[in-house]
Amino acid sequence: MAVDLLLGLQWGDEGKGKIVDVLTNNYNIIARFQGGPNAGHTLEFDGIKHVLHTIPSGIFHDDAINVVGNGVVIDPVIFKKELDNLAQFDIDIQPRLLISRKAHLILPTHRLLDAASEASKGKAKIGSTLKGIGPTYMDKTGRNGLRVGDLELDNWKSKYRALANKHEAMIGFYNVDIQYDLNELETEFFDAIKTLKSLNFIDSEEYLHNAQLSGKKILAEGAQGSMLDIDFGTYPYVTSSNTTAAGACTGLGVAPGRIGSVIGIFKAYATRVGSGPFPTELFDEDGETMAKVGNEFGATTGRPRRCGWLDLVALKYAVQINGVTELMMMKADVLSGFKTIKVCTAYQYQGKEIEHLPYNIESENVKPVYTTLPGWKKDLTTLTSAKELPESLNEYIAFLEKKLEVPIKIVSVGPDRLQTIYR
Ligand code: GDP
Ligand code: IMO
Ligand code: MG
After folding, report:
1. pLDDT tens column, 74-98
2. Catalytic site residue 13?
């Protein structure tokens, strides 16, 4: 059986959590392949909203196994909080949640280093979620990291100590004012490690290989979005992992030839949280309406998300890099009531109109070129079938499908599981 991928195609927060939860009915295993608690994946059903950071979004389904893959970075403290939150829902977590031994651990000092690095950058800061993501992946590629599997060895605490000591010296190097009480942070960390150790650690690449051989259906859940990819995103304003399709191969140990459908999801408009270029960003009433109606506040940090029109130049690029085979459009309901809908179909760049993503998309370099389409008034949030979609929305969808050359299979019209329309 092939492994299907679900990826965000923009700057994150496209609605991955909601869709993974909806799609879990069709899969036996949901496997997160990269990122860490910088992610905030929201699911809603039965009137309850859940936000997951590290735990895959299939966790609420009795018959699905959730795997945290080797490409993920885990903060035991945040992970424990996630588990504590789930405790009230009577879920038998242990058999359902498996952790890769090769996943790296976020230490308290990684979080401090993230804060020190951001503080030292001043205005040029990345706008990191301050969850220690960058420093942890730096230790991974620098071959210094502490992994989940190390917790099964007797000497893990001395490995921890050596790394934390080094981090403390590095924090000093930044020469910024970071207040912390390492003893307190470590007490919390070691306590959380105990909780982490109560779960089953696995060799996830082997587990997923055997699952495929026995015909299990696997969905790989991405975090962040393609424009935050360490290689292909708006560097340096990106995260520190490969958020694109190839990240699923390295983040789970799945061979490229084993990948089946590549499901790309995008909002009907665009948002970004944190710093960095965003060519279609709006600073007017339209942007404010999107933020308000779409409730655009970060699920992890609570920061307001920047909003703008859909950027087809960037989206096409993401479809290409990922080899997207089907699309899902999220938050279509948020655009109800706009008289007209704009879509960026090209950039003005060095005196020419271009349709590919240039090296630098800072606002002084590119100006979006828009196509304007008619809007629709109809409230979409109570619709249940594609037949009920308003004509102008169908026109919008047809326009996007033609430009992207990939079918849009799902239109999401609200945060709830049930507000999902299949086409
Ligand atoms: P993720 O990081 O990709 O999982 O997305 P987030 O959970 O960070 O952000 C998406 C937000 O939009 C969440 O608050 C969801 O509950 C909400 N959401 C998802 N789909 C829809 C939709 O179709 N319409 C509306 N109005 N909200 C949605
Ligand atoms: P999900 O999975 C939106 C952004 C941060 C910052 C940059 C780097 O919920 O879509 P980091 O903490 O990784 O060093 O931050 O990336 N960012 C996200 N933006 N959704 C996310 O995850 C994000 N994870 C990181 O705001 O600009
Ligand atoms: Mg999110």
Report:
1. 999 999 999 999 999 999 999 999 9
2. yes
- The 3-state secondary structure of the chain reads CCEEEEEECCCCCCCHHHHHHHHHHHCCEEEECCECCCCCEEEEECCEEEEECCCCCCCCCCCCEEEECCCEEECHHHHHHHHHHHHHHCCCHHHHEEEECCCEECCHHHHHHHHHHHHHHHHHCCCCCCCCHHHHHHHHHCCCCCEHHHHHCCCHHHHHHHHHHHHHHHHHHHCCCCCCCHHHHHHHHHHHHHHHHCCEEECHHHHHHHHHHCCCCEEEECCCCHHHCCCCCCCCCCCCCCCCHHHHHHHHCCCHHHEEEEEEEEECCEEECCCCCCCCECCCHHHHHHHHHCCCECCCCCCECEEECEEHHHHHHHHHHHCCCEEEEECHHHHCCCCEEEEEEEEEECCEEECCCCCCCCCCCEEEEEEEEECCCCCCCCCCCHHHCCHHHHHHHHHHHHHHCCCEEEEECCCECCCEEEC
**Residue 284 falls in the annotated catalytic set:** no
- From the CA of 274, give the closest atom in ligand 2: 27
Which residue ranges in the chain fall short of pLDDT 50? none
Which ligand minimizes its atom distance to the CA of 36?
A: 2
Residue 309 CA to ligand 2 center (angstroms) comes to 20
User: What pTM was estimated for this model as a whole?
Assistant: 0.97
